[in-house]
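STRUCTURE:
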């Protein structure tokens, strides 16, 4: 477990990592508008999606196991002044593989590759079980996942890659992110080490490191996980406009409904 100062910095750098909007907010707002009942986001991070969904008038529960991520989500929510009637955001610190909220939701989703951060297929299957037991009978679930091409994984050979250099407005410093990754074809996993080097005028530079295990899964395994949890795949799209999934799609957006008892 990282010390509080490091964990707080990593939460800020998570937001810096997503400074370029992935373009998925409108999709989730549309899903939330078309379903009844509250919304549940699993692995919600700093509230990039939960906050705008709540601000749009939905009752949202955002779950993440990192309290520093959730603290930033709380700050983000507190800064929203233009809230539609009915807006509500509840933040829950919990492991999504063991989550038991005791209520069901009209929309349950895992966004932007978060499923890949669960270590191994057993944990990923448990996440689908969590989705299924929290989904209303007429509800919908959405899972969005990156599908790397062989050329994407070719650079996961231990080389150092500079991802970006950006200004952290909160800390008033510059931050450079460098990544070193190694892919293991036999396991379908990659060990990713990210270095965040921060500096500002008059202060010594400092480095923060984060390590993740990325457990890649195929579209076929994604469907199998859903079906094993009792879900029925309704839509298998290739982008956030819900365009057709094809063999060369670099991501999949899978929409499911509960199966019949």
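SEQUENCE:
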């Amino acid at each position: 477990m990282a010390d509080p100062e490091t964990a707080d910095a990593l939460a800020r750098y998570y937001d810096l990592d997503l400074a370029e909007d992935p373009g998925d907010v409108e999709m989730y707002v549309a899903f939330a508008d078309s379903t009844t009942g509250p919304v549940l986001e699993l692995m919600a991070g700093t509230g990039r999606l939960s906050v705008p969904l709540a601000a749009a008038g939905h009752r949202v529960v955002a779950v993440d196991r990192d309290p520093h991520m959730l603290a930033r989500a709380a700050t983000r929510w507190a800064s929203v002044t233009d809230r539609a009637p009915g807006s509500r955001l509840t933040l829950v610190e919990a492991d999504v593989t063991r989550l038991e909220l005791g209520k069901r939701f009209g929309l349950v989703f895992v966004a932007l590759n978060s499923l890949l951060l669960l270590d191994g297929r057993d944990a990923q299957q448990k996440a689908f079980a969590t989705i299924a037991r929290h989904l209303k009978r007429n509800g919908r679930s959405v899972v969005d996942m990156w599908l790397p091409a062989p050329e994407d994984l070719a650079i996961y050979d231990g080389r150092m890659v500079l991802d970006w250099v950006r200004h952290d407005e909160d800390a008033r410093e510059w931050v450079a992110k460098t990544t070193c990754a190694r892919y293991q074809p036999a396991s379908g996993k990659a060990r990713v080490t990210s270095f965040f080097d921060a500096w500002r005028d008059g202060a010594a530079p400092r480095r923060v490191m984060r390590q993740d295990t990325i457990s890649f899964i195929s579209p076929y395994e994604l469907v199998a996980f859903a079906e094993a949890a009792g879900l029925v795949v309704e839509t298998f799209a290739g982008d956030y406009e819900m365009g057709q999934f094809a063999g060369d799609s670099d991501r999949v957006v899978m929409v499911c409904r509960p199966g019949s008892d």
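REMARK: The domain at 150-215 is CATH 2.20.25 (N-terminal domain of TfIIb).
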